[in-house]
Amino acid sequence: MAFTDTVGEIFYGGDYNPDQWSEEIWQEDMRLMKAAGVNMVSIGMWAWAHIQPKEDVWNWTFMDKIMNMFAEHGIYVDLATPTAAQPNWLSKKYPEILPVMADGMRMSYGSRQTFCPTSEKLLGFNAEITRRIVERYKDHPTLAAWHIGNEYSHLVILCHCESCESIFRTWLKAKYKNLDGVNEAWGTVFWSNTYGEWDEIISPKITAHQNNPCHLLDYKRFTSDAYLASFQNEADICREITPDIPITTNYLYEFNNLDYFKWSQQIDFVAVSSFPDTKPGEHIGKPPFSHAKMRGLKRGEPFVILEQAANNVNWRDANNNKKPGIMRLWSYQGLAHGSDGLCFFQWRASLKGAEKFHSAMLPHAGADTRIHKEIKQLGAELPKIKEIIGSRVHSKIAILFDYESWWALDNKPGTTTFLEYNNQVQKFFLALHEMNIPCDIVFATDPELSFKDYDILIAPAMYIIQPGVANKIKAFVKKGGSFLTNFSSGMVDETEAVFEGGYPGPLRDLLGFWVEEFESILEGVDNSVKLSNKLGGKKESYPATIWADILRLETAKSIGKWTKDFYKGKTCLTENKFGKGKAYYIGTDLGVEFNKTILAKLCKDHKIKPLLKTPKNVEAAVRTKGKKEWLFVMNHNFKATKVTLPKAGLIDIITGKKMSKIITLKALDTVILKEKIKKTKKK
Ligand code: GAL
């Protein structure tokens, strides 16, 4: 059963906080939601104090009423467990549930998401309220999904309390069996950090100098697992009582505190809060990079944008608006890259509280506003395109992504602070995106990791080589695949121990060289790499930033050399034949432009073509289901733009109009094209 089955439509709606409003407003909201095409709302995530105002007092009146009201109006509910914000009475009575920061100070209550993920006391309360909610609404006709908590770990990245430390020790015992195992893995002989008793092990708090890297990495792994266990504490109850109701929680846009791949194997569908930067000039491919991750988390299944902003947010330093047409365009962009739902934070803009200046589907000024009219327009269009539900994005190229390499590089292992993992990965995705070539994201810790659907595999900044992954990559290349990786890859194993004999460690035979030295390219230092042939591009040399590798070639061929410094003339770029395929390496950051050049060459080798050749800032994406195919063409330009389609006669399913071969897409407009279905004449 697909998660969209109950609703039967592209999810459209938003977070709704009825406890902030009177019953008259609820009635008005029902009417306005229906008029705007809303079919699903997420409710309850901030309602704990309303439902359980005191430890032994339960109040279901408002929840019962609002659930029934939604049922009467044919609007489905994604019902949240309210455990992302425990009531004040709970924090006051049991202060041990509050998290402790790296400086040892306990946080105070008074906002939200301020809890320790391992507090037994809190987990008990969470389980109780979850069970009561699930029992109460399990057969409610309007229930479409369970929404557990909210954006786990968003606001408390790591908790350092005694409960976490004690559970961390248990986690370590399960992983390393004994203290020798921990000491060995962490390399605690360094700086005299050897542990002689289990209770000497604490969380990586603020200390005079750098923390042990593997201690930090394990604490991140542990924290991701601890939050997951607190999610499962509630999800298990939902699954036990309502096995057929899908379970989700909302992830954060470009967030890395949790191993979302591991998490996603425990949820029924991936949902994300998608708030891309609205700064002018932001790359149009950034949201698709996040979308590609979201669909990769459940190996290609559609996901849901469960929160986006109708207009401005309230939490950036300065919050600009989504210009007219942007909200609709970015919504279609989300669908184009694999989302089956478009929901917002939130339905009605709050009048009080910290988020009162965050935009909403229904702004403070009411329904007669630009924002609400755009919401209504989108709500009226979505039912026309619901045939895309369940379709998928297909690609012959994958990026290998690793949350643990991201964590380890975030801990700044002593290479360069200019190296940002996600940025590096994004630069390859953006290069493909600019060429309208789709790219999947696969995850290095996936036990079922396979590259069989792909011709090209890219592994940027793959600092940690996860167990078993090098052999899988080699098998892929041997069979004819192309592999591309870059600097800072293959440096350490999963305990962050450096590979001896020169990086790229276990990839050395595949890549055909070893790294003799590397250095950070400091700001203001000018160096570049000259290509031995232009790789099919226009430029002969590209400026280098961030990092410089000095390579010693074995079987690899040099395809680019340094132009300056003491390593002038030494190799930075390589190509190495391996079995039937080839492996490429870039020993620096040459920017998106160069990444485009090398990826265009690899695509040519594998006969991978762009989905559509489009003018600048016009994006093409395809979703497919069986033999059906939908081509999304999205104009991100603030002016009308001419686009040449593959052929004349395609139908835009938003308007039902037949397209000529050359079309003029209005500023910020989208078409979703499919073949005209021939009608068979009735005899
Ligand atoms: C999300 C969160 C919402 C709201 C929103 C504002 O991250 O889940 O509750 O705070 O951000 O953008």
Structure description:
By secondary structure, the chain is of the alpha/beta class. Helices cover 29% and strands 19% of the residues. The protein has 17 helices and 26 strands. The strands form five sheets. Strands 5-4-3-2-1-9-8-7-6 form a nine-stranded parallel beta sheet, with helices on one face. It has a nine-stranded mixed beta sheet with strand order 11-10-12-13-20-19-18-15-16, with helices on both faces. It has a four-stranded antiparallel beta sheet with strand order 21-22-26-24, covered by helices on one side. Helix 5 runs parallel beside helix 8 (213-241), helix 6 (162-176) packs across helix 8 and helix 14 (421-434) packs across helix 17. The chain is globular. It binds beta-D-galactopyranose (GAL).
Could you list some keywords that capture this structure?
single chain; 683 residues; alpha/beta; nine-stranded parallel sheet; nine-stranded mixed sheet; 17 helices; 19% strand; globular; binds beta-D-galactopyranose
Largest sheet: 9 strands, parallel
Proportion of helical residues? 25-40%
Poorly predicted ranges: none
The total count of strands amounts to 26
As laid out across the biggest beta sheet, the strand order is 5-4-3-2-1-9-8-7-6
Structural class: alpha/beta
Note the total helix count.
17
Q: Average pLDDT, to the nearest integer?
A: 97
* Small molecules (ligands, ions, cofactors) in the structure: beta-D-galactopyranose
N- and C-termini, Cα separation: 37 Å
Rounded Rg: 26 Å
Shape: globular
Please indicate the percent range of residues in DSSP E strands (runs of 2 or more).
15-25%
